[in-house]
Amino acid sequence: MKPIDPRLVVRIGPARRYILVTAGLGLLTALLVAVQALLIARMLAPVLAPTPLTGDGLGWLGTLVPTSARELSSGLPLLAGVIALRTLTSWLQERLAHRAGAQVISELRSQVVAHAAAMGPRWIASGRGADVVTVVSRGLDDLLPYFVRYLPQLALASTLTPILIVLVLGLDWLSALIVTLTLPLVPIFMILVGLVTRERSEKHLKAMQTLGARTLDLIAGVPTLKALGRERGPAARVRELGEAHRKATMGSLRVAFLSGMVLELLTTLAVAIVAVTMGFRLVEGGIGIETALAVLILAPEVYLPVRNVGTHFHASADGLAAADAAFEILDEPLPAMGGDAPAPDAARGAIVVTGVGIATPDGVREAPSGADVRCSPGTLTAIVGANGSGKSTLLLALAGLLPPTAGRISLETGSAADDAPERDAEVVAQDGALLVDADGWAKQIAWVPQRPDLGPAGRTLSLGQRQRVALDRAFESGRPVLLLDEPTAHLDPDSRDQIVERMRALAASGATVVVATHEPDVVHAADEVLTVESREITEVSA
Ligand SMILES: Nc1ncnc2c1ncn2[C@@H]1O[C@H](COP(=O)(O)OP(=O)(O)OP(=O)(O)O)[C@@H](O)[C@H]1O
């Protein structure tokens, strides 16, 4: 797995800016850490060793900090300034991280929602809609720890760590060698711990998922279980699952503590090796006290970012998985929805469906297949046919939401009684593409789906009530074309009669009303009836 998804950098502006700024702050932190270590070493050396203070101990690095004892009196405020600046840098880093994380999440959310909307209702209904909901509602939140915890440490591991190794090399080559040889052990041990614990993590995840799914199932089924007097039955099973979950969580915690301890031990040992060799050389006079102190202060700082990258590895895995899920949706090619031609004025002509066939998503059948109908302003057209024959699909095609795979939909001005040569036809959709401006076409249409959802506001309404509200809205919309999908399916007889009357009245006032229905009363009231059928595609092409 890559530490940074390149798509995040290429496609998401705030992510790119943030990564650049974080790298810059990493460099600044490296400089501050170095100055801080050298200053402390220079100030502590005379206290610890009664030998006269010389600037030679730090070599060329000594020029970075004050040299003489007199100058050192100004060292304390300088040290305080460096520490304050380091604190400020990490505060700024944290702030930027939160802001960038929130911006990236919000931008990805908007892009995913816009993409899902552009993919059309059938794509959403095919189960991908649920993926969009998961990614947009919770999944992308995992990106925040990725931005706030993991990326800054990664930036430090790739800026601070190499710079400090070079500094240590400038001070003492043997310590630099020890650090360079022991540093790779940190990622190696992290990988080993990861491999050993992978199975446990997977088991934990599975237990969590099973528990979540069963709990949801159980909550959804409580009314039924209660009605059957079986509500106590599943309690034992939930208890068992809860116990399994507790064990898995405790196991994961043990592993987390253990792996933390392994890394802690490893870095401590590495620093100890540096310290011990330095101690011997100090005694033998092979190294100055200042240099030894500076190296000892710098050594743990070298390991820290690499260790932290390991600690926050899970944040990275979850965040990148969330980004990956979002990009998987964004990478789905958009259907050719909408051309450059302006949408024709639907109030001025008849929508003519000629030989329209629409392949089902599995590509096996066409539903509808070979549909021909003329929906004129001032008429009510009923679309009838067996379940699954393609009535709703044809309405989607008329709304410009799903282009026909065969045949065409056009707008013809002039009446059916006119001679053909006098008619003016503009193709709206054909060969799998909508040829006119999608928004311009959609604005002229009021579409009421089979099961209207009015979102949270509609939750307190029954299905029939929701359908009435949606129909009222469509009737009052003043749009020239109305596409109604089984508008009377959930209505009582009185409401049904009212709806039929209003559909007739709207048609009489000049609207083009098209209704998919199984209701004989609606079919009776229609001026035009189209029976749609579905066919196997092999049968069609044969
Ligand atoms: N979301 C979907 N995913 C996969 N296939 C679909 C989807 N929606 C429709 N289909 C396919 O398209 C065909 C036509 O569906 P459509 O909803 O248009 O039928 P319908 O005539 O309106 O049926 P009903 O009378 O039951 O409402 C179905 O038989 C099915 O194969």
UniProtKB/TrEMBL annotation:
Topology within the bilayer: Multi-pass membrane protein
Main location (coarse class): membrane
Regions that span the bilayer: 20-45, 147-167, 173-196, 255-280
Name of the featured protein: ABC transporter transmembrane domain-containing protein
InterPro entries, A to Z: AAA+_ATPase, ABC1_TM_dom, ABC1_TM_sf, ABC_transporter-like_ATP-bd, P-loop_NTPase, Type_1_exporter
Record keywords: ATP-binding, Membrane, Nucleotide-binding, Transmembrane, Transmembrane helix
Domain of life: Bacteria
Residue ranges occupied by any ABC transmembrane type-1 domain in the UniProt entry: 20-318
PROSITE patterns the UniProt entry points to: ABC_TM1F, ABC_TRANSPORTER_2
Occurrences of domain ABC transporter (ranges): 351-542
Cellular localisation: Cell membrane
SUPFAM superfamilies tied to this protein: ABC transporter transmembrane region, P-loop containing nucleoside triphosphate hydrolases
Record PANTHER family: ATP-BINDING CASSETTE SUB-FAMILY B, COMPONENT LINKED WITH THE ASSEMBLY OF CYTOCHROME' TRANSPORT TRANSMEMBRANE ATP-BINDING PROTEIN ABC TRANSPORTER CYDD-RELATED
Organism: Demequina zhanjiangensis
